[in-house]
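Researcher: Structure prediction, please.
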Amino acid sequence: MLLPDFQYPSIVLYYCVFAIMLGFAGWKLFARYKGATGGEPELYATYVKVFVFFLSGILYAQNPPIFSHVDLVALLVDLILVISFVTIALNANRVWPLIAAGAHLVGLFSHFSRAIQLEIDPWAYSLLRMIPIGVALLCIIIGFIGHFQRYKKYGYDYDWIDWTQVRGLEKSRG
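Model: Predicted structure follows.
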């Protein structure tokens, strides 16, 4: 079953935040279709989140999440998220990807702490896995809002760091 049990308020809140993020991404894609530029880090982060959302849904359709020992599906998903968000954070001209990458690192390290010490309460392990995902979703929403404000104020928004302008990386003269 791909849809979770909506009897818990935290799950409903997660899906509401996810829907808001997808709404901002759809709005930005429509604006880009109309000729607006920028917002690529936010869109790439949204693509990654949607990909892992469906990947985890497909993988968890076979077996539900496990909190009594290390969940290999969640480990794979967190590894994909960390690699993606660190790549975005190193290249984006934004602050929010650094916070989101740090949050996903916390989620990744929760699996290692679970593997080292099996006496960790399953409730604590589940919180260490789920809270970083929500923090990253909120960071993406804040990134979209900041992008829209900068674009409205200045008419442009630089998405990526131009590493050739960094001192010492310019072309050699010889």
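Model: The helical segments are 9-33, 40-62, 72-91, 96-116, 122-154.
Researcher: Thanks, that helps.
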